Amino acid sequence: MKAIVVTPQKPGVDIREIEIQEKGEIRVMTRLSGLCGTDRGIVNGDLDFARPPPGNDYLVLGHETLGEVVEGNDRLRKGDLVVPVVRRGCGECLNCKVGHQDFCETGKFTEIGIRGAHGTMREEFWDSEENLVKVAPSIGEIGVLLEPLSNVVKATRELESIQRRMLWRCEDSTYQCRTAVVLGSGPIGLLFSLTLKTMGFNVIVANRRPPSSVEEEIVKATGSIFINTSSEQLPEMDLLVDTSGHPSAFVPLLQKIRKNGALVLFGTTGKERAEITAEDVTRIVENNVVIMGSVNASKDDFQQGGNLLVTWKEMYGEVMSKFITRKVSVEEAPEVLEHKVPGEIKTVIKWK
Amino acid sequence: MKAIVVTPQKPGVDIREIEIQEKGEIRVMTRLSGLCGTDRGIVNGDLDFARPPPGNDYLVLGHETLGEVVEGNDRLRKGDLVVPVVRRGCGECLNCKVGHQDFCETGKFTEIGIRGAHGTMREEFWDSEENLVKVAPSIGEIGVLLEPLSNVVKATRELESIQRRMLWRCEDSTYQCRTAVVLGSGPIGLLFSLTLKTMGFNVIVANRRPPSSVEEEIVKATGSIFINTSSEQLPEMDLLVDTSGHPSAFVPLLQKIRKNGALVLFGTTGKERAEITAEDVTRIVENNVVIMGSVNASKDDFQQGGNLLVTWKEMYGEVMSKFITRKVSVEEAPEVLEHKVPGEIKTVIKWK
Amino acid sequence: MKAIVVTPQKPGVDIREIEIQEKGEIRVMTRLSGLCGTDRGIVNGDLDFARPPPGNDYLVLGHETLGEVVEGNDRLRKGDLVVPVVRRGCGECLNCKVGHQDFCETGKFTEIGIRGAHGTMREEFWDSEENLVKVAPSIGEIGVLLEPLSNVVKATRELESIQRRMLWRCEDSTYQCRTAVVLGSGPIGLLFSLTLKTMGFNVIVANRRPPSSVEEEIVKATGSIFINTSSEQLPEMDLLVDTSGHPSAFVPLLQKIRKNGALVLFGTTGKERAEITAEDVTRIVENNVVIMGSVNASKDDFQQGGNLLVTWKEMYGEVMSKFITRKVSVEEAPEVLEHKVPGEIKTVIKWK
Amino acid sequence: MKAIVVTPQKPGVDIREIEIQEKGEIRVMTRLSGLCGTDRGIVNGDLDFARPPPGNDYLVLGHETLGEVVEGNDRLRKGDLVVPVVRRGCGECLNCKVGHQDFCETGKFTEIGIRGAHGTMREEFWDSEENLVKVAPSIGEIGVLLEPLSNVVKATRELESIQRRMLWRCEDSTYQCRTAVVLGSGPIGLLFSLTLKTMGFNVIVANRRPPSSVEEEIVKATGSIFINTSSEQLPEMDLLVDTSGHPSAFVPLLQKIRKNGALVLFGTTGKERAEITAEDVTRIVENNVVIMGSVNASKDDFQQGGNLLVTWKEMYGEVMSKFITRKVSVEEAPEVLEHKVPGEIKTVIKWK
């Protein structure tokens, strides 16, 4: 079958005919593959951790997937839409034993399309039921957003768990008195904005530039606000989510995080350093501020993300499909994998 | 009565005869006052936030107290040892309404001996029962450590609450597989080491210099290890507690915090900045690391701290009294308030 | 305006022209009123706790509401669909102070249409924004289910909070290995079945009789199973939810609750007693079983319930509207309030 | 070596010379064995679940132990006092995998001296370090109380976890406004009273008869109150702990449990049934009451229990040793195992 393959640490990407013997009782036909910074990092040879499965010299790319069951079982039937979880646990540490490979402690996990396991940028794959999450047929193509969304769900769920350390909800039991600022308006930033909005926060999406028209439309339709920080000051906030990875973007905002507030670190690709001062430390200490890094997701996060997509499809309708800014054929995939598409939110490869 | 008073923001400290009309149904005779960096910061005029009670032009110093009830009620009787809580809530925000003034959101709290309320460096004071924590008579003079300890209890309690985000306990339900490093070997550092040890952690106390003989004795007797970081490397750790306040001390250790680990920021007086890089951010994100600032304590933290002091007195006996490295008379107090006592762990003023 | 009124503790119900001076900056036109057992209990004079507002000798009935804003403000605009929360807190106890009047400890709360406050079975009412929950326009008429659903959301949220006492999720972080049995197939039973299904449980709805055709359709369409306990045995279960209120229904099932399982008590109208034996107690103790009673809901439970309705509307489409088995005019209301409608799931009054 | 052995389900108990090949790197000399109702139930042949280790036709009794290390390792040294945990996990279910065999779901655990594993009523035994909890030398003989106490610690810890479902602490962050009633004044009842007192509750110990002089002394010295329910009414309560196992004892008190309150079921040996009515169910539902059964303990519960014993020894001194109402020689053991000792709190066998 046709597959999009790379040789980790070597720049370049190919479409190739391959044959893979795989375990797993469910056969899935890939319908859409989403592209993200990790894929491009691997294609450009920049990511040290990318590696083929043991015994292979190539890696099939692809970890954002919308698939359709071709051969199933009692619980997953032919025609069901499914999304595979990305990380597969080590089986050794306590968190992996309880289905939380997102908190794996040994580092011996694999990640499809990234570390030690083939991805899903190919016509079809076999997987076991336990790694596949069924999504409602009604959500259709935006199901390809579930994988990135699952990571956002994990982060917000962990945030809520952490903030139980005191009373963080408002006088009416909701979050209506809390302001969240999301740094970055890429797909992750926008998915954070929708998730936090659904939780009840007042949400500001911030970037150093004006919004693209699609960004503007999504932010507006979902009841959030866009602030261009190159021309406007951010207000004080209870929650800051950084999707940029630039210390230079979030460190200067530490002084704007309110008492009992939190900073969620999600981005990792930033390059710009920043200096942290004793004043920053004092602010964190005196204000009981928490900073949390968050990575990956559990199967339950995928399932909750699936429910969110259904809700958003119903509430925001057409706006959700604006997330997919470009659909390319398999043949066009190498091009969009090698170079970022201008104005893109999510570029996807259409397999069938 | 005799009291130790300052004029906030003006360097200097006096012993003066004062008369104070106070609310509160319990009359308490001060027995010991502990000294800490905050007291000296106020005496030196360095702390912006220090302020007298409304309508006063002076502030009685003192927030680390061991007192004895002189006139009591049904629950607090004459002769009982008591320790007053420091922070008094704003009465407006949700956390203050539920007895968690340590998480006050309005900032309208007062703190005895620090912000807007007279402290206890005086022969006696009146207070209400709700602000007084009874301690077991058996612990005697080390009861003066309860106030600093309460802040440590709050921090570790919050840490445990936060770490419920995943499985952090070991295969046998304890913390025996976890290593905690405490930066700083002052009274707060040592109290953290004892608390974490009691919780079941393997504990390393670290400083940039060799331990003093008292530090060495306390660390050894309580089953922890001292590492002089100017000559020895710290190992990887699950928990890092900074009591130094210097970003330069803890930022370089971010790369040594293990997956799912935590950094507790407690110190605020540091001056040395540090640069945070994208690699640091990536480590925090990929490892699900949490950084939490912690300040102050609730009444319950005082009560739990009281239980800890009883336990430690029984387990470590004489070692606990080594914490009090010097006892001075009221007349000597200005001297030790103006200048740090060499080799000191805790210097106390003996009132009676 | 026209209103449906009762004199608490006196059987009977009237349609009457009334005028009410009310606080609240939002004017709401009632669109639909749902009927439940509590309404009928009040109409029949059976409920001791029903009482008019202070100074009134009558009570406007109605606590299940779908309304439309007629005069609004910045956050709630003309045309928005809203549902008022039922219980209004005492303002004195800690739980009410933090928006959890569902856990009110003083008992001094009011409940619209039930205790000390007029309900919404009238053409329109004024209320403050803080008591009104906005629902997505797309859900339309099934918004009238939000009030009963909110109580189910509270119960399952509390269940999850309680079950954090150990590991209750399955090896893949979901609830797919857990079986929940819901006793009773009325609206509350069916809403529990949908909520638990969405959470990931295997759900069995049980009753002592065969399902009505509507019950059968809803249960089937939402992926649950119906068991008629008069002819079939229930299997062992991890969760038992009783909506019947009959001790005779759930006590015999205590022996079928698995280790670490839970029994949620929700129903209160049952009459049939049951004997509890030492064997039952031993089962509860040895199996670490929890039994929890749950009543009422917070505003956040209404908001989460609103999200669930949106999800279900999208996933189950027409099936959701089957919940409303009969819509009557205001003039027909007394009839359906006095006598239970055969085969009913939810009977509603259409105001406009 | 000498051992106290039974043949499960056959009444009778013997002192016998046995030889056991055991795994485990630590050799422990038994110093004291505590006796409890389970031991006597096994000796009388009443307990169905008692069974010898696989391949054995006899069972060495004994699960309440105070031992001394004879051959140790780096962490447990010769002379250390140790207490072995009782239940050994199945290794299969999630809770056992994380050290919570007290929540074992498969039921395939063993329990020393009870189910499938030899107990410690013998001169010495080998065990692995992971099953042994070190206790402070200072607590001495009352270390034999640690095993029963561990179960109390588990129950109260679980209670606190469950009660996080709402605000249960008082306005000052403590439990000083909460009243706990403990039904039963045996060793478990008294250990509950001390634990709850240390947590900050107002504690009432209740029995159907006047207290013995020892019970009276312990209850008084630890600041609790004894109520003889045959002549005096219990007040309303926030927490009810049943150590009797009689439904007839706790069911009539359901109407006295306040809003948001809890009933902890711990006893299992009761025989007297009781009827539960719809009024009881309504009380549980309307008041958000929780009922929880609790059994066994994790290693961490033993460690926390060890800290409590140290605290109580320091605070209550001689009173703690009153718990041991009789010390018998090994030769006298069969006698006290067959018949309850009048006025006993804890009877112990002295091995050396």
TrEMBL record, chains A, B, C, D:
Record flagged with keyword Transmembrane: no
SUPFAM superfamilies hit by this protein: GroES-like, NAD(P)-binding Rossmann-fold domains
Ligand binding (NADP(+)): S185, G186, P187, I188, N207, R208, R209, F266, G267, T268, S294, V295, N296, K340
Domain Alcohol dehydrogenase-like N-terminal positions: 23-135
Record field: catalytic activity: D-glucose + NAD(+) = D-glucono-1,5-lactone + NADH + H(+); D-glucose + NADP(+) = D-glucono-1,5-lactone + NADPH + H(+)
Annotated positions binding substrate: T38, E111, E147, N151, N296
One function term, GO molecular function aspect: NADP+ binding
UniProt superkingdom: Archaea
EC number from the UniProt entry: 1.1.1.47
UniProt keyword list: Carbohydrate metabolism, Metal-binding, NAD, NADP, Nucleotide-binding, Oxidoreductase, Zinc
Keyword hit for Zinc: yes
Domain Glucose dehydrogenase C-terminal: 141-350
EC primary class: oxidoreductase
GO BP annotation list: non-phosphorylated glucose catabolic process; protein tetramerization
InterPro entries: ADH-like_N, Glc_1-DH_arc, Glu_dehyd_C, GroES-like_sf, NAD(P)-bd_dom_sf, Zn_alcohol_dh
Cofactor entry: Zn(2+)
PANTHER family: L-THREONINE 3-DEHYDROGENASE
Family designation: Belongs to the zinc-containing alcohol dehydrogenase family. Glucose 1-dehydrogenase subfamily.
Functional description taken from the UniProt entry: Catalyzes the NAD(P)(+)-dependent oxidation of D-glucose to D-gluconate via gluconolactone. Can utilize both NAD(+) and NADP(+) as electron acceptor. Is involved in the degradation of glucose through a non-phosphorylative variant of the Entner-Doudoroff pathway.
Name under which the protein is recorded: Glucose 1-dehydrogenase
Organism: Metallosphaera tengchongensis
